[in-house]
Specification:
Keywords: Signal. β2 and β3 form a beta hairpin. A four-stranded antiparallel β-sheet has the order 1-2-3-4. It has one domain: Nuclear Transport Factor 2, Chain: A (Roll), CATH 3.10.450.50. It starts with 6 loop residues before the first helix and ends with a strand. The radius of gyration is 20 Å and the shape is globular. It has 188 residues and is of the alpha+beta class. The chain contains five helices and four strands.
């Protein structure tokens, strides 16, 4: 499997990728992820414009509030989908990451899903997990429902930035018994 990337896919840099990953993890419903900001955390300083007779702004040497604590439940199917896409988008955006992408597929996808993706990739000359030839700038996973031993999630991939931003949507099916992804298809 060969990944091709455009210059615009690498432009946002590592910081944007990490921010997009964290934003995606926060988008997973609270039932699968805990968010517990520290009670003792100081409030962030405001940056309001102050007049000459108002109190000075907080000193620049004050520590920022701690980052939120993120956690996930590997038993929750859509949290596993979120973990997979977080890791996959990260490795797909790095040149020479084919071995890592293959290892992620082997861990998170059923053998039948891996075969279907390989067939799709041969026909379309693109990455079957992302349904594209480059890497998205962000992703988000939304649970959709479950039944008959499977659960479904919608993965929204963000391409570009600002006014040029566009989205693609994937339907991801996960087997409840194994916890592995059994199907990735375009949703719309």
């Amino acid at each position: 499997m060969t990944h091709t990337r455009t210059l615009s896919a690498r432009r946002p840099g590592r910081a944007l990728l990490v921010a997009g990953t964290l934003a995606g993890l926060l988008a997973v419903p609270a039932s699968s992820m805990d968010y517990a900001p520290s009670e003792a955390a100081p409030r962030a300083a405001t940056t309001a414009v102050r007049g000459p007779d108002q109190a000075p702004a907080p000193a620049p040497d004050q520590e920022p509030p701690p980052a939120p604590v993120l956690s996930g439940d590997p038993e929750t199917p859509y949290a596993r989908v979120a973990h997979f896409y977080a890791a996959y988008v990260d490795v797909a955006s790095d040149p020479g990451s084919n071995a890592a992408a293959t290892a992620l597929r082997a861990f998170y996808l059923t053998p039948a899903a891996q075969k279907r993706l390989a067939d799709w990739e041969r026909r379309n000359e693109a990455d079957g997990v992302l349904r594209a030839q480059n890497s998205p700038t962000a992703w988000r996973v939304t649970p959709e429902g479950s039944g008959m031993g499977s659960t479904w999630s919608t993965v929204r991939l963000t391409w570009g930035e600002g006014k040029d931003r566009r989205y693609t949507y994937l339907k991801v099916t996960t087997e409840l018994e194994s916890g592995k992804i059994s199907e990735i298809t375009e949703k719309y």
